[in-house]
Write a structure and sequence with these properties.
The chain is mainly alpha-helical. The chain has a single domain, classed as Response regulator (Rossmann fold, 3-Layer(aba) Sandwich). It contains four helices and two strands, in the order ααββαα. A two-stranded parallel ribbon has the order 1-2. It is globular and about 45 Å long. 14% of the residues are buried. About 4% of the residues have low confidence.
């Protein structure tokens, strides 16, 4: 869920990768269902072990309740989130909404730290404005 929200809401400021200490064999069907209710398709996502992820990380979000390996060399943020496996659809929605709020806080914090583009760069990369009302240009 967290990876889905991070990709949907924060792809401009972060790169999300999801992995677990002891991942399940597949993503639960109710996870797919409740994420689609938010228009986020996680059908392409599959559980991965942490050692399958390559590269370095700035932040590791741990929702497992178990300690993460210290050799990751990244800041670890612990999220106390209920594991919805085996629970009702309503519990999945509650967990989804908690994770969505927490991911959005991370995204907003990352955007606050991102340096603004310079005026020169902004003007050269900006898309031209389009007049959809087809009015004559101002003089």
């Amino acid at each position: 869920m967290a990876e889905g929200f991070a990709r949907a809401y924060g792809s401009d400021v972060l790169v999300a990768a999801s992995a677990g200490i002891s991942p399940a064999l597949s993503v639960a069907p109710l996870t797919h269902k409740v994420m689609l209710e938010k228009n986020i398709d996680v059908g392409h996502v599959y559980p991965k072990r942490m050692d399958m992820l390559k590269g370095s990380f700035d932040l590791v979000v741990n929702m497992s309740g178990k300690p993460v390996p210290r050799e990751l060399g990244a800041r670890v943020e612990e999220w106390q989130v209920r594991d919805p496996i085996g629970e009702s659809e309503e519990v999945y929605r509650e967990v989804r909404d908690q994770i969505e709020q927490r991911v959005m806080r991370l995204v907003l914090a990352a955007r606050a730290r991102k340096p603004p583009q310079s005026e020169e760069r902004r003007s050269t990369t900006a898309q031209p404005r389009v007049d959809t009302r087809r009015r004559p240009p101002r003089k």
